[in-house]
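Lay summary. Proteins are chains of building blocks that fold into shapes, and those shapes determine what they do. In this project we predict the shape from the chain. Here is one chain we studied, written as its sequence of building blocks.
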Amino acid sequence: MPYHTQEKKAKAKPKKKVVFKKGKKMGMSQNQRDKLKEHAKHHTTKHMSVMKKMMKGGASFTKAHNAAKKMVGK
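And here is the predicted shape, written in a compact code that computers can read:
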């Protein structure tokens, strides 16, 4: 048998869970609120509510957006 047929299969990486920061709510700046308002034109209310919740907890816009896409879609 050729040596390359016995290769080990790559282990699938476990999906990362989205963690909401607990404790003090940081709130959002006016720039973040404006950006979310513009962003809401292209996304569902469910997507936006997840993003708002994460951003109030201290997540950046990009991290909140990517997590919302994974959780609820566009």
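What the prediction tells us: The radius of gyration is 19 Å.
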